[in-house]
Write a structure and sequence with these properties.
The chain has 292 residues and is α/β, with parallel strands linked by helices. The protein contains six helices and 13 strands. The strands form three sheets. It has a six-stranded mixed β-sheet with strand order 6-5-4-1-12-13. Strands 7-8-9-11-10 form a five-stranded mixed β-sheet, with helices on one face. The chain has one domain: Purple Acid Phosphatase, chain A, domain 2, CATH 3.60.21.
C-alpha cells in the first residue's frame, strides 16, 4: 500500500514562489505603542476617539522607516521580489510597570502596527514570516504577536502558528536561522561575545544531531546592529543582530552599555547574489542631546 503523508500547514498556505525568492528583508523591535517607538507621522486614532500625535523623536524615526522601505529596500533588492521577516517585539505591550505607552489598550497598539506593516507586506506580495518576541511585550506565548500575524496573513509553520519561535529559511542554496533573543552585555567592549557564541553553538548543535548548520543566524532583542563571521568549508558563516525602531526608554538610561550610546534604527537584507549569500545592513540614529 502506498504511504501518504499529511501536508503541513506551512506548505499548504505559503505563497508558491516563496522558495524561489532570493531577497529577505528583516526588521525587529518596532515596539509600536510606545511613545518612543515607531508611529505613523500623521498620528493615530485611539479606541476612545482621541488622536495621538507623534513626538519629534517619533517623526525622526518614522522618516528613517520611510527611507528604509521607499529607497533602501528597492535599491538593495535591485527591484526584485522580496520576503519579510519580522523578528519579534512588534508591539510594546504593557510591561514592567511602565507608563510610557501611547495607549495601554493592546488593540490600539495592534491597530497601529497593522497600519505601519500592511503596506509593506503588500509590497512583498504576502511573503511574510513573523517571529515571537519577549513575553513581557507581546504576551504569554506571544499571544499578541500571534493575533497580529494572523491579521497580516503571515505564513504559518507546520503547527499552524502564524508567529513562531524560530524560522529555518532556505534562501537560494543558503540556510538561515531566525530567532528573536540573544544574550547581551553591559560593556560595548564585549558586544560581539554572545553573538559569536551563538554562532558556535549553532555549529555544535548541528554537528551533534547530524544536521546542516546555518550559513547565517539572525537575532534581535538588543536594538543594536553587530555581526561576526567565520570561514567554513561552504562559505563565510555570519551571525548578525538587527537594530530596532525604538529610542531610548527609561529602562535604557540606567543600563550599562546602553545609557551612553545613541539609539539605532534600521534593518537588514539577506540576499542570494550571483555568487554567494550575503548580508546588507541599514542603520541610522538621531542627534544626541543638545549642549546647553
Amino acid at each position: 500500500m502506498k504511504r501518504t503523508t499529511k501536508t503541513p500547514a506551512s506548505k499548504a498556505s505559503k505563497p508558491p514562489d516563496t522558495d524561489k525568492i532570493r531577497n529577505y528583508v528583516c526588521v525587529s523591535d518596532l515596539h509600536v505603542g510606545c511613545q518612543l517607538g515607531l508611529c505613523p507621522e500623521k498620528g493615530v486614532r485611539l479606541d476612545e476617539g482621541g488622536l495621538y500625535q507623534p513626538s519629534s523623536i517619533q517623526r525622526a524615526i518614522y522618516a528613517h522607516w520611510r527611507e528604509f522601505w521607499d529607497h533602501w529596500v528597492p535599491s538593495v533588492t535591485k527591484g526584485e521580489p522580496f520576503g519579510i521577516v519580522l523578528n519579534g517585539d512588534t508591539i510594546d505591550g504593557v510591561h514592567h510597570g511602565s507608563t510610557h505607552q501611547i495607549s495601554q489598550n493592546l488593540q490600539d497598539q495592534a491597530n497601529i502596527a497593522y497600519e505601519l506593516l500592511a503596506p509593506e507586506v503588500a509590497r512583498a506580495e504576502g511573503r511574510l514570516y513573523m517571529i515571537r518576541g519577549t513575553e513581557a511585550h507581546v504576551g504569554k506565548s506571544g499571544v499578541q504577536e500571534e493575533a497580529l500575524a494572523a491579521r497580516l496573513g503571515a505564513i504559518p509553520n507546520e503547527y499552524g502558528q502564524r508567529a513562531r519561535y524560530e524560522l529555518w529559511k532556505r534562501i537560494g542554496d543558503g540556510l538561515v536561522h531566525f530567532m528573536h533573543h540573544i544574550g547581551s552585555t553591559g560593556s560595548q567592549a564585549y558586544e560581539a561575545t554572545a553573538v559569536h557564541k551563538e554562532l558556535v553553538e549553532a555549529f555544535t548543535e548541528s554537528g551533534r544531531w547530524n544536521e546542516r548548520p546555518p550559513d547565517i543566524i539572525v537575532r534581535s532583542h538588543r536594538h543594536r546592529l553587530i555581526r561576526t563571521e567565520v570561514p567554513t568549508h561552504r562559505r563565510v558563516s555570519i551571525a548578525v543582530v538587527t537594530p530596532g525602531w525604538q529610542a531610548k526608554t527609561p529602562f535604557a538610561w540606567k543600563i550599562a552599555g546602553a545609557r551612553q550610546s545613541l539609539p539605532q534604527f534600521g534593518g537588514i537584507l539577506i540576499r542570494r547574489g550571483d555568487e554567494d549569500l550575503f548580508v546588507r545592513t541599514f542603520v541610522r540614529s538621531i542627534a544626541r542631546s543638545r549642549v546647553e
